[in-house]
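Lab notebook, bench 4. We co-purified these components, and the gel suggests they stay together. Before we commit to crystallization screens, I want a quick structural picture of the whole thing.
Request: model the full complex, all chains together.
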Amino acid sequence: MSWAAHDFETYVIQKHLGIRVSYLAIFFGTYVPDAFTKWYVYGFTRGPFNLRADHPAQFHRSWPGAGFTHSIFFIGCVAFTVWLVTHRRSWAKPWALGILAGGLAHITTDTADSLGTMLLWPFWTGNVSIGMWAYAAEAGRYDDAGAYYSSLGVVMDFAWLVIVLVHFQVFRERYFRSVIVTADPWVWGQLGRVFPQPVLLALYRASMFYGVTRLLFWTAWAHIANDYQWDLSWGGPDWITPVHL
Amino acid sequence: MVLYALAAAVYIGVGFREKAVFAWWPYSTAYFMTFMWLVPTILRRIRARTGRKAGRGSQSV
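Here is the predicted assembly.
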């Protein structure tokens, strides 16, 4: 799986789609594939309750399991449902397109790990993968972070950071007002009733903030606070067993 | 830019005490929105107050 790359790609997608699309929908769209499954992959402990998938990788990315959430068909269904429910509203199309674009970006980026995604489910249940780094969610959240930020995953995140910084103008207040708000005036207008303008701008920039801080934090945590070994070879790190289905 | 660097430094610092802040994006979004509203507001008020005091002082001179 990818980490900060998902946070950065939202801005680049919005900039390059060339159609009226809601930024917030792209943002939420990038979370659609993992929204209801990721907590169960890593597990959840509260008091006597300990919930975790028996086979996290199988559950997360395969079938039987919830791997269908990482398919073009599923993302298309979610986008279509959003359009169907809201089609009388002026923002229906920009939101449906945003969900579609964000979701597709997520499942495409996730094909870079050793497990890959079931892009063509239900027509084909195989996983598409280029195996750039080892999928390590089975090891738990923290070892997964250590593995990802010791492998080519960190290169992927930094590459996306560079790409988004090349598009620095998207973070300007003028761009926010003239492009982002204009594409989705009703939703930003409703938010504007609750929050002052600087907070709305912060909301728009929040994904960049989260991406940068977690890229820096997990890299520092893995290699300064802890001693995870770097392995920037294809499919690394070699100290963790990559999961294949 | 200083404000963003400060926001990031504080958040990363908190992360080293409690990694959970990096486990779920709403934490960071809520923190960032609050920080970017609260800190400038406090700074504005401090500036206004010190400005008023300076103003009174200059009148008495």
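Residues 53 and 59 of chain B are 10 Å apart (CA to CA). Worth comparing against the SEC data before the next meeting. Chain B has two helices and no strands.
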